Amino acid sequence: MRTLDFIETLKRFEKAVFTTTDIAKIINKDKKYTRLYLLRLKNRGVMWRIERGKYALKNTHPFILASNLIFPSYISFLAALSYYGFTSQMPRIIYVVALKAKRDVNIDDCAFKFVKFKKERFFGYKREVFQGKFIFIAELEKLIVDSLFLPKYCPIDEIFNGIREAGFDLNKLLEYGIKMNSIVVLKRLGYLLDLRGFDTYDELKGKLNNKFDLLNPLL
In sequence order, which residues have a C-beta less than 8 Å from that of residue 53 and are 6 or more positions away? Predict the structure, then answer.
């Protein structure tokens, strides 16, 4: 198969990361030939080797790659904030929330790191079409509470700017904050919403304690 035809064939698939077996079926060759074929394409700068036995077309957007590395999973934290347009930063590290631990993946100048969540905190994400492919991304309200839960992955000031500018659903944001089952998350969320002019006392009373918790533990 000619290289240009091969590239166009891969682009027609919904997924973006292909196994050696996938490619063997596409080019109708055996595994041994396919591995050599992929090595040549990699050396020519046509394909990226993502990890052992997995490949993607070079210059595939990081959001698309991030959604094809482990299932189920979703993009969250600063990368998701960037997706919604509430930060000018396009992070070089994309944090992916997953139910299982996974080694970091480095592709070109972008790193993909995986944050393991318990099943009860794994919610609030959706499938979107992005550049003709499917991605899995946190809802705006979920990326906010994820970031308040683990602020080392997304600065608190970025979240405050997002809360200030975003058209979020207040009821959903409070629901997700409570569902995270973290008093610290609710304290941080209540504080930021108060700065934004929202009175959440009635919704959050009885769910907090008097313990002092840092708004930003990284300071």
Answer: 19, 20
Cis previous bond, 72, omega within 30: yes
Q: Do 83 and 141 share a domain, yes or no?
A: yes
Interior CA angle at 79 toward 74 and 84, to 5°?
Answer: 95
What's the chain's Rg over C-alpha atoms? 20
Phi, psi at 81, each rounded to 5°:
-60, -40
pLDDT in tens, 141-194: 999 999 999 999 998 888 888 777 767 899 999 999 999 999 999 999 998 898
**158 residue type, one letter:** E
The answer to the question of residue 219 being in a domain is no
H-type alpha helices, the chain: 3-11, 20-27, 31-43, 62-66, 77-83, 140-149, 156-165, 170-179, 183-195, 201-204
Rounded to whole angstroms, how far apart are CA atoms 98 and 160?
A: 25
Same domain, residue pair 96 and 174: yes
Instruction: Please tell me the predicted confidence (pLDDT) of residue 157.
Output: 86
Q: What is the value of pTM for the model shown? A: 0.92
Instruction: Verify that 12 and 89 share a domain, yes or no.
Output: no
Total number of domains in the chain: 2
Q: Are residues 23 and 127 in the same domain?
A: no
* Sheet containing strand 18-19, strands side by side: 18-19, 54-57, 47-51
85 lies in the same domain as 186: yes
Q: Please spell the DSSP secondary structure of 98-160, one letter per residue.
A: ESS----EEETTEEEEEEE--GGG---EEEEEETTEEEEEE-HHHHHHHHHHSGGGS-HHHHH
